[in-house]
Amino acid sequence: MTTHQVETGAIDSDTTPADAIAGVVARLRRVHASGRTRPAQWRIEQLRGIERMLDEREDEITRALAKDLGRDAFESWLLDILPTKIEAAHARKRVRRWMRNRPRLLSLTQMPALGWVQYEPLGLVLVIGAWNAPLSVTLEPLVAAVSAGNCAVVKPSELAPASSRLLARLIPEYLDAEAVAVVEGDGHTTQALLAQGFDHAFFTGGTEIGRKILAGAAPHLTPVTLELGGRNPAIVMEDADLAATARRIAWTKVLNSGQTCLAADYVLAARTVRDELVDRLVHSLEEFRSDGSPRGLRIIDERQFERLAGYLESTEATVALGGGSDPATLTIEPTVLVDPSPDEPLMREETFGPILPVLTVDSLDEAIRFVNARPKPLAAYVFTKSARTRHRVLAEVSSGGAVVNHLVYHHLASQLPFGGVGASGMGRYKGRSGFEEASHRKAVLLKPFKPDPRFVYPPYTDRARKLIRRLYRA
Q1: Where is the active site (predicted)?
Q2: Which stretches of 72-160 are DSSP H helices?
Q3: Tell me: the pLDDT tens digits for 394-443?
Q4: Are strands 151-155 and 180-182 parallel, antiparallel or unpaired?
Q5: For 214, phi and psi rounded to 5 degrees?
Q6: Does the active-site annotation cover 261?
């Protein structure tokens, strides 16, 4: 018998998952309609609850992440706990200010009048998590949802089962269980949730699944924030500090075994520094594993392992480092590949693993053309000391975000919006951007009863028409 988890209890065989999900959604809608989640204090308590959960249950969290992903405790703290704590604390300290009406200066033609933007909760928000960072990519959108005063359903990834079970147990303990529910399950559960018609949905995952999420949301016109990843380029020019550049790029390929949406997917290196950069990448990756760590890095499951091993078997590139894999342990060695064919599978799909292709370019123009000939990435990275080079890449390469002379760090900045563009996603969260994404921004205009000039109303005389045109300069 298959059981499905809704909140902390299993649904028995006499109850269909769809029926149980509908009941949870109906209850949450009643709670939201009661106004319970609107006050600033409720929002602050939820955000503080997330912070407390991460502090008090750190050991349990890191153990669950070790089971799912094979990570050590510090890496789990760095990737999942730290970013979420930063985000929750940032929102908690500012949410009262975010909730205030934002006055707008109106044109003279509107006078006398006052205008402002008023923020109101959307209602019920669905958060669909991912397996590669099971806490942060699930809880950070939840921060946005509760800071905006919404009820929420959290659907963790079934591919990280230990983390999913832990979230199902801890979220009702630390947050308002009447307003925030956890539903565990697979893709069928996700579609059953979308069929309920939420007021907004956040999804983190791959592009193909993102299309299915969008299709599932479409019948109900549910707005969706999609964070989908993509092929993130790292452009390395002749004037870059190659030692720092190599360390920083290599770091993203060992962090979580390269299974992060913001890792460098490939490097475009200027020909004059390509060989030295490759040598330094190899040195950095070897240095990172010099503490006796196993050579291979753990991949989440057999399907992802076989995909990555297939890239290694089919590549035409020169192997500068690594290239090994072990199906028994689902591990892939950190690998540096030099000049693979741009048409091979490795270069057509997001790598999402510890494999780093390095391609040679003869100019900045060539690098920009290469990136722009492919779907828009979630992040673009450029390493240079030249302001002109930096400005060109930022102006001419479209990407969800960009970092100059480093990688990933923009995700830790709650002051910056985070999200994709084109195939790498739509919508934004983090900080105020997340609050606004999960809020309805209502335009409000207040007029007095007087003056009430007659010429505004029909029937319009010739004089009235001329006056109105003159007022609006139309």
Answers
A1: 227, 261
A2: 73-76, 82-99, 136-147
A3: 999 999 999 999 999 999 999 999 999 999 999 999 999 999 999 999 99
A4: parallel
A5: -65, -40
A6: yes
**Phi/psi of residue 35, each to 5°?**
85, 5
Q: Let me know whether 431 and 354 are in one domain.
A: no
Cis peptide before 377 (omega within 30 of 0): no
Write out the two tokens for 95. 């949410």
For the chain, the farthest-separated pair of C-alpha atoms sits apart, in whole angstroms, at: 89
- Token code pair at residue 343: 């048409």
Domain shared by 136 and 284, yes or no? no
pTM of the model: 0.92
Give 361-392 as a DSSP string: ESSHHHHHHHHHTSPPPSEEEEE-S-HHHHHH
The encoded tokens of residue 62 equal 């890191």
Active site residue 227: yes
Q: Which of 261, 333, 350, 436 is catalytic?
A: 261
**Considering only CA atoms, which of 315, 324, 318 is closest in space to residue 347?**
315
From the candidates 7, 75, 227, 437, give the one annotated as an active-site residue.
227
Residues 167 and 239 in one domain: no
Domain count, the chain: 2
Range of the structural domain that residue 137 is part of:
18-229+426-442
Task: Quote the distance between the C-alpha of residue 404 and its chain's center.
Answer: 20
CA angle in degrees (0–180, nearest 5) for 341-342-345: 85
Asked if 431 and 413 sit in the same domain, the reply is no
Work out the end-to-end distance of the chain between its first and last CA atoms, rounded to an integer number of angstroms.
Answer: 70
Phi, psi dihedrals of residue 159, rounded to the nearest 5°: -80, -5
Residues 170 and 219 in one domain: yes
